[in-house]
Design a protein that fits this description.
The chain has 67 residues and is mainly alpha-helical. Helix content is 85%, strand content 0%. Helix 1 runs parallel beside helix 3 and helix 2 packs antiparallel against helix 3. The longest helix is centred in the middle third of the chain and has 21 residues. The protein is flat and about 35 Å long.
Amino acid sequence: MPPLVALALGSALGSALYPALQPLLPPLLVGAVGLLGLAALAARRGVGAVGRVALAAAGFALGLAGP
């Protein structure tokens, strides 16, 4: 799966679950930034699966940040 597809799917899932969960915004954005950093580090080291999972999780967190 291409990296942007993982990010888009995570974001779509987070946006779909936003009304039910209503998380606090600041901790969520800090977590999303951390996950994007992990994805960048994994991509640099050539660890594809970990990077894609981190991108999907970051997309999920950004999707939960609110529509």
